[in-house]
C-alpha cells in the first residue's frame, strides 16, 4: 500500500470515525440512530476504529520501508547496518528527493583535509572538512564498494565477465584499453580500479551492475546516504569532470573507513603497487605505498576542478588512521601533506 493511498484512507476513515462522531455528527455517547440497537452501533464504531488503526499501521510500515538504509544495484537490494557516524555527522533518513538532489556548488581546486582514527571514527584533525569539493577519482572508491557488495551477495563472482560497451571503451584516460564487444573479469576490474584508476573499467562495472551508468550513479548516491555521507552526490562512476558530482573530506573519510572495515579482505586490492593486463603492467597511482611506513591504500584523484586529492590509510603499532586531502597544488605537495598528517597523528 503506497503512502498516498494510505494517507487518504487514514484521513477519511479517522475523520468519519472521530471527527464526525464527536463534532458535526452524533456523539459516541449520544443515543443511537433509529432502527439501530445500541449494541450494533457500538460494534460498528469499534469496527471503524479498528480499520483506522490498521491503516495507520500500514502507513507507518510503508514509511519505515521508505527510509530503509538499503540501496539497489541492478534491482537487487543492498542492505547495510548503520556505520557509526563520525563526530559531527549523522546518517540521514531523507526521502528520495533529498537523497538525490545535488547539495550545491563545489569550490574549484580548494583545500580541505581531515584525519580520523579508523577504529573509533574520532576526528583528530580537520580543515574545511564539510565544504563541498570535487571527488575526481576518489569516486571509484564507491564504485568498488558497490562491486564488493555485489560479490558479498553472490550477484557476481570474481570470474564473472563484464561486457564492454562502446561507451565504456571510449572513455578518456586514465584507462587500460578495453575494447568494445570484449569482456573483463570482476577480479581484473577490481585491480584496474584500485591500482590504475581506469575510467573505462569504471563505466563497464557501472553498466553491468546498474544497467546504465546513470542508474548506477543513483545507487552510488543512495549508498552514500546509507553510510552517513550527507553531502555527496554522484552522477558518474569514474569521477570525470561534472560540476554536479560533489563530496566533502568528511564524507570521503566515512567511505574510506567503511571500505576498510566492511570489505576489509577485498579492500586489500588498494595495497597493490602494480597489476598486469593484456600484456601491459600498470603502476599504482598512490605514491605513498612502500614509501611511507604503514600506508596500505587507498585512493588518489585528480581533475582540473579538484586539484590533487588523496585518501590514505596507515597502520602502525595497532593503531590506524585515515587521512584525506583535497585540492593539492601538485602531486608532490599533496603527498607531502598527507605524509605529514600521518606522521603527526599516527
Commentary on this structure:
The chain has 346 residues and is α+β, with helices and mostly antiparallel strands. The protein is built from ten helices and eleven strands. It has helices at 3-22, 38-66, 96-100, 139-152, 166-169, 186-196, 199-210, 213-227, 249-262, 331-345, and strands at residues 71-73, 76-78, 112-117, 123-127, 161-163, 183-185, 274-277, 280-283, 295-303, 307-316, 319-328. Strands 4-3-11-10-9 form a five-stranded antiparallel sheet, with helices on both faces. A hairpin with a 2-residue loop joins strand 10 (307-316) and strand 11 (319-328). Helix 1 (3-22) runs antiparallel to helix 2 (38-66) and helix 4 (139-152) crosses helix 7. The longest helix has 29 residues, at 38-66.
